[in-house]
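ok, trying the design again with the full structure, not the truncated one.
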């Protein structure tokens, strides 16, 4: 239970709250009462409470002064002020000393119980967090076997005389139980969830957490030697009698470490494994393999185990065909060929993986490629500033842990550019079609109205216009013009006594017979028959 202290200069108030509050129901015990701030300080030092309920206006030392003392000397104790004063200055002072709550009198027993429940939850959360951090910090303060780790670190770095290796292993009580060995490094992959819980954590604390859990898991395993090297990296040296058994041991132990880190610390880690060797004098070669795996794991998709052998055959010449790929991608973007865009992006990134380039060089080239693509699209009314801002991955490339993630975002940006350009182009085409229809509506009676005259009016070529007009309206130019003229003709026949030849001329036909045949094809009747039917 949590301990509470009640401070109020009025005896009746102290007595009423003391007797009428069911303290134990909300996991509290009233550890004592005091009539002023000074008496409360003495009581605090004696009983070490978790919560202080205090009035403001009291002789000798008031509630604000008591809150200031607690804030300075016992910040872990929560303070709740219960006062009859609703003056904002009091509340402002209370906020300065991080008072947990400020409650106005009168307060009922029910209200106080509800408040104690809220405080209990805060105390529970603070205790849990404090307990977790204290456990980590206590382990961190323990003195690690520095000499042992220093020796193993030098051995793995290849800086130990071969003749002294076995004696020093015996001195530290270390031995490789098995003919074959492999060195593995436990690498932090994603610590964002842990940092959300403990934002003030340092890199040293993160690395220590990995070492602490990993060492605990392998401490009793005779087939694993654990160390934290001079760079605070957690290293396991595995040994077994056969290469197959060694592989099984690496996977079994590695998976247990990964699971534990995820469950207890909310961290993602991966296991970097060097080549299999025989004898401690060759451990440095296996360790060098873990460093190569660490450097190149960016090229692979996210995975638990990354082996040095995963990168065999990837020793390219470092040459990247950036200009070639930019030209292909720009063309696909402009033509809105999304399938080709996807295929070319996949081929390009496959080439990147096999190029032999390191992470830094690849990211620099990818960044420059995207900027070059944007510049090449300026003629298509692409707002480079806006697109660069929206394509956030350009500014955050260094945050991507895997090239596969970069590929996904790169393709998304290219697809968006293509869609934007296609949308703008479609909008322009639609506008041209609307303008053409408007011009036709206004000039349908002109017998010389033609595709050429409309295109001249719009300042576009006939071939281009025919395509966009058909796509925008679903009709050819002739079909649209005929439809307009026939509708106008029907209107004239319905609203006037004009002769067929007069109607023909009025809607742009100088040949009455041709007009009559077109009208019949459109309505199923000749103009004369259509007019007679209307007059029945």
């Amino acid at each position: 239970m949590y301990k509470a202290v009640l401070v109020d200069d009025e005896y009746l108030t102290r007595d009423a709250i003391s007797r009428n509050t069911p303290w134990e129901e909300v996991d509290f015990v009233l550890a004592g009462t005091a009539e002023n701030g000074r008496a409360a300080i003495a009581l605090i030092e004696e009983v070490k409470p978790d919560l202080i309920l205090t009035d403001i206006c009291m002789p000798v030392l008031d509630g604000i002064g008591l809150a200031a003392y607690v804030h300075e000397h016992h910040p872990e104790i929560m303070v709740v002020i219960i006062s009859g004063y609703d003056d904002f200055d009091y509340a402002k002072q209370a906020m300065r000393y991080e008072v947990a709550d400020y409650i106005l009198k009168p307060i009922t027993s029910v209200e106080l119980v509800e408040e104690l429940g809220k405080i209990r939850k805060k105390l529970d959360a603070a205790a849990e967090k404090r307990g977790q951090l204290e456990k980590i910090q206590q382990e961190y303060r323990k003195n690690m076997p520095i000499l042992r780790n220093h020796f193993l670190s030098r051995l793995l770095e290849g800086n130990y005389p071969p003749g002294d290796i076995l004696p020093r292993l015996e001195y530290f009580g270390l031995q490789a139980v098995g003919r074959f060995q492999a060195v593995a490094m436990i690498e932090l992959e994603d610590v964002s969830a842990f940092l959300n819980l403990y934002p003030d954590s340092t890199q040293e604390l993160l690395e220590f957490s990995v070492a602490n859990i990993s060492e605990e898991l392998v401490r009793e395993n005779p087939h694993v030697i654990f160390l934290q090297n001079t760079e605070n990296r957690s290293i396991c040296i595995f040994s077994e009698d056969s290469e197959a058994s060694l592989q099984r041991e690496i996977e079994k132990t590695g998976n247990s470490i990964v699971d534990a880190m995820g469950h207890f610390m909310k961290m993602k880690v991966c296991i970097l494994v060097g080549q299999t060797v025989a004898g401690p004098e060759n451990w440095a070669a296996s360790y060098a393999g873990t460093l190569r795996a660490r450097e190149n794991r960016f090229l692979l998709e996210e995975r638990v185990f990354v082996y040095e052998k995963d990168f065999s055959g990837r020793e390219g010449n470092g040459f990247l065909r950036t200009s070639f790929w930019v030209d292909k991608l720009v063309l696909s973007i402009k033509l809105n060929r999304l399938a080709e865009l996807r295929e070319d992006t996949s081929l390009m990134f496959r080439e990147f993986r096999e190029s032999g380039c390191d992470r830094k060089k690849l990211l620099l080239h990818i960044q420059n490629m995207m900027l070059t693509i944007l510049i090449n699209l300026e003629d298509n009314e692409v707002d480079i500033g806006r697109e660069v801002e929206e394509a956030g991955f350009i500014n955050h490339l260094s945050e991507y842990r895997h090239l596969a993630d970069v590929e996904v975002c790169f393709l998304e940006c290219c697809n968006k550019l293509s869609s934007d350009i296609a949308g703008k182009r479609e909008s322009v085409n639609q506008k041209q079609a609307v303008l053409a229809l408007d011009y036709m509506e206004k000039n349908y009676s002109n017998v010389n109205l033609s595709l050429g005259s409309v295109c001249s009016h719009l300042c576009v070529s006939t071939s281009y216009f025919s395509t966009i007009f058909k796509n925008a309206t679903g009709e050819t130019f002739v079909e649209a013009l005929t439809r307009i003229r026939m509708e106008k003709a029907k209107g004239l026949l319905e609203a006037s006594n004009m002769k067929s030849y007069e109607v023909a001329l009025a809607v742009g036909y100088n040949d009455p017979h041709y007009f009559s045949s077109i009208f019949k094809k459109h309505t199923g009747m000749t103009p004369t028959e259509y007019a007679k039917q209307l007059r029945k």
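Keeping the full-length input from now on. Strands lie at 2-7, 28-34, 51-54, 78-83, 101-104, 180-190, 224-228, 234-240, 268-273, 305-307.
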